[in-house]
Amino acid sequence: QVQLQESGPGLVKPSQTLSLTCTVSGGSITTNYYYWSWIRQPPGKGLEWMGAIAYSGSTYYSPSLKSRTSISRDTSKNQFTLQLSSVTPEHTAVYYCARAPLPSLESAYWGQGTQVTVSS
């Protein structure tokens, strides 16, 4: 079965870059036709789709986050990464990686999530 695991620092300072890695096992991130997504949930709020990288390497971003979001991958390690620049305390959230059939919230496989706090 496909498993996803988020990793990265749990605390980031304002104005810095939030960087997370998703390690995938049990399946290849290059397998047709899946999208590997980043999703977050701020405290007390709903899930927000941030973006995704496709099996082909193409990237897709939420319009509201596009200017500060970068998703990339390392196929040799079967990993994909999230970089969110110029963060503020409002970016504090639980961050998830997931596999989806489209670049959207719909997904069958999720990581367990990782808490990231933006604070000075």
Task: Please tell me about this protein's structure.
By secondary structure, the chain is mainly β. 0% of the residues lie in helices and 49% in strands. It is built from no helices and 11 strands. A hairpin with a 4-residue loop joins strand 5 (48-54) and strand 6. The chain is globular, with a radius of gyration of 13 Å. The mean pLDDT is 96.
Search tags:
single chain, 120 residues, mainly beta, 11 strands, globular
Summarize this entry quickly:
The protein is 0% helix and 49% strand.
Number of helical stretches of at least 4 residues: 0
What low-confidence regions span 5 or more consecutive residues with pLDDT below 50?
Answer: none
Strand content: over 45%
- The ordered H/E elements are EEEEEEEEEEE
| Major beta sheet summary | 7 strands, mixed
Helix content: under 10%
Radius of gyration from the CA trace? Answer: 13 Å
Question: Secondary structure elements and their pairing?
Answer:
Elements: E1 3-7, E2 11-12, E3 18-25, E4 35-41, E5 48-54, E6 59-61, E7 69-74, E8 79-84, E9 93-100, E10 109-110, E11 114-118
